[in-house]
Amino acid sequence: MSKPLIIGDKAPGFCLPADGNSDIDLVDFKGQNLVLYFYPKDDTSGCTTEAIAFTDKMSVFSKHNTKIVGISKDSVAKHDKFKAKHEIKIRLASDESLKVLQEYGVWVEKNMYGRKYMGIERATFLIDEKGKIVHIWRKVKVKTHVDAVLAIVSELNT
Fold first, then answer.
1. Alpha helices by DSSP H, the chain
2. DSSP line for 23-38
3. Domains in the chain: ranges and CATH
4. Any catalytic annotation for residue 15?
5. What are the angstrom distances between the C-alpha of 114 and each of 27, 106, 110, 117?
6. Annotated active-site residue in 47, 71, 123, 150
7. What is the pLDDT of residues 86-115, one digit of tens each?
8. Contact yes or no for 35/91 (Cβ under 8 A)
9. pLDDT at residue 1 above 60?
């Protein structure tokens, strides 16, 4: 594994299949801020709460020239069902190959009830208009996370 990403690093580029039979490419966000959040699995309680919270604040993020993209290893078809079921409006990308998850350092060994396995660390990267990482949240607490991200995004534009 390469060295972990830190604030100030250039965000690793990607082009991934996404909801609605589309692609999401990092270069599409040049000139805008991007909240790139990684989450374990569609339709689980924490992931659903987080996606709905980001959806609810989309217009506020938009006022700060900021887009939101979620990435998991779930398929595009699963993303589409998840979005329809919960009326989620943010874009969701699929990284079934794990390549982007590994580049961002969020494909990690986890431990639950003494069982070790590989999975996605819930983490968020704030990428500025020039493609630099300006903030990183790791081991995210879902209930307060979106407001914490919005607070930092608000500071970028003051």
1. 45-56, 58-63, 76-86, 99-103, 142-156
2. EEEGGGGTTSEEEEEE
3. 34-156 (3.40.30.10)
4. no
5. 41, 20, 10, 10
6. 47
7. 999 999 999 999 999 999 999 998 888 888
8. no
9. no
